């Protein structure tokens, strides 16, 4: 018996069987046996979801054997990879091929299947979410059928399974639309609360990707604004190794980890620490290939809740969140992250047909999040927010059905592809019903 635990340590499970499939046929066999015995199967990723979305209740499949680049179509500008490939591995291989994804988040430790199935996203661009960049997939359904889907074959399956929550099948390969290797210029600097509210929309309009971290109990925030450059990637001006180590490793991880532990032990010091943290990183400008600019190292573990609110309500929701924080005696040692996303056409996406502002709330892994997250969730819901599927929230199928107009279509496809609920677990029973 192997114990499974997610990255934050909030979710764990003890599957009765652990398998390492290396072929699609291995996946078919595992699912068929589970169906015959009336048990369940879950393919786990790297555990970066904060919910129990991938928690296995019986048979656990580990994804490492289904990884690597499978094909490259330069005419169609697509790349197909095994669903168990880590995002950081895909990024490195795409760079070697002179290609890039259009957009991504700031963590690249997830498997491709896990990242798209939970709605992982970045900020800005033409498409913020990874699922919106998927143009084809292969999966094994709950009946053991190997099902391929793209824009011409089973397009209705592609439409819904791009962000499938692990409820429709075990993904075995994914095809992404890609672009020629991108060069981004990053401008990073401290920004005050007043400037953030006054200029946020202007910053979003004048840069391709904007990410802001506001530190509660302070007037300070950190801005990262990325702009695409037309120059050849050979003209990149990356950070000097010492500069990258100082800001990204020493300050953002080692020192931040120490101050986080200090705040956990002595909560009254948190406001002073936050004021220092919001000014600690130096202003800098650099350029590099896209994934090296998008992605950051995160060694300090935390708990997270994130909501997407309609873009027009984003700053009002942020200001209300601050008012609620200021009215309580909490000591929040992690920043609130603010990102934006254009509307997309992925049915279960938090940005489905809605330009969105993402507000993400964090606490250190060791800190009880319940009161803080419950209050922030109330604010986000009052502003029409949709919760991130892979991050903490309290909503059930009824509440989510009011926020996602395609949820009935999704559950109907689930009835067709997994009639015996081979892929069900506690989280899916809550958010989709039984």
Oligomer class: single chain
- For the terminal residues, how far apart are their CA atoms? 27 Å
Write down how many β-strands occur, each being a DSSP E stretch of 2 or more residues: 20
For the residues shown, what is the average pLDDT? 94
- Show unreliable segments: none
Number of helices: 13
Taken from the alpha-carbon principal axes, the silhouette is globular
Strand content: 15-25%
Radius of gyration: 21 Å
Helical residue percent band: 25-40%
Order the strands across the largest sheet as they lie in space.
Answer: 16-13-15-14-18-19-17-20
Strand count, sense and closure of the main sheet? Answer: 8 strands, antiparallel
In terms of structural class, how would the helical and strand content be classed? alpha+beta
Give a written overview of the molecule.
This protein is an alpha+beta fold and 434 residues long. It has 13 helices and 20 strands. A hairpin with a 4-residue loop joins β9 and β10. The longest helix is centred in the middle third of the chain and has 25 residues, at 241-265. The protein is globular and about 60 Å long. The mean pLDDT is 94.
């Amino acid at each position: 018996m192997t114990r499974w635990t997610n990255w934050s340590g909030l979710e764990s499970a003890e599957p009765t069987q652990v398998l390492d499939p290396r072929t699609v046929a291995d996946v078919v066999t595992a699912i068929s046996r589970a169906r015959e015995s009336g048990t369940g199967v879950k393919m786990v990723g790297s555990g970066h979801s904060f919910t129990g979305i991938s928690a296995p209740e019986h048979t656990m499949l580990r994804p490492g054997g289904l990884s690597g680049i499978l094909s490259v179509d330069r005419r169609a500008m697509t790349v197909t990879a095994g669903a168990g490939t880590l995002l950081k591995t895909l990024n490195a291989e795409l760079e070697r091929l002179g290609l890039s994804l259009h957009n991504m988040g700031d963590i690249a430790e997830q498997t491709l299947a896990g990242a798209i199935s939970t709605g992982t996203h970045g900020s800005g661009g033409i498409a913020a979410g990874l699922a919106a960049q998927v143009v084809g997939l292969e999966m094994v359904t709950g009946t053991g059928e190997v099902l391929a889907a793209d824009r011409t074959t089973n397009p209705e399956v592609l439409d819904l399974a791009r962000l499938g929550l692990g409820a429709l099948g075990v993904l075995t390969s994914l095809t992404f639309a890609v672009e020629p290797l991108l060069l981004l210029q990053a401008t990073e600097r401290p920004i005050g609360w007043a400037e953030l509210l006054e200029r946020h929309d202007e910053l979003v309009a004048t840069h391709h990707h904007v990410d802001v971290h506001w530190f509660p109990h302070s007037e300070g925030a950190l801005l990262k604004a990325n702009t695409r450059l037309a120059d050849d990637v050979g003209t990149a001006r990356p950070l000097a190794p010492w500069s990258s180590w100082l800001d990204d490793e020493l300050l953002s991880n080692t020192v931040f980890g120490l101050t986080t532990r200090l705040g956990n032990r002595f909560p009254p010091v948190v406001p002073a620490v936050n004021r220092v943290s919001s000014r600690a990183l130096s202003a800098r400008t650099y350029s590099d290939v896209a994934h090296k600019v998008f992605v950051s190292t995160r060694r300090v573990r935390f708990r997270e809740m994130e909501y997407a609110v309609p873009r027009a309500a984003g700053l009002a929701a942020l200001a209300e969140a601050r008012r609620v924080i200021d009215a309580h005696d909490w000591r929040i040692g992690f920043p609130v992250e603010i990102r934006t996303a254009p509307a997309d056409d992925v049915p279960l996406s938090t940005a489905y047909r809605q330009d969105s502002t993402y507000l993400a709330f964090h606490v250190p892994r060791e800190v009880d999040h319940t009161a803080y997250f419950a209050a922030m969730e109330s604010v986000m819901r009052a502003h029409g927010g949709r919760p991130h599927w892979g991050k903490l929230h309290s909503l059930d199928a009824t509440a989510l059905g009011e926020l996602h107009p395609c949820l009935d279509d999704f559950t109907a496809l689930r009835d067709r592809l997994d009639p015996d609920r081979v892929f069900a677990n506690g989280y899916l029973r809550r958010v989709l019903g039984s």
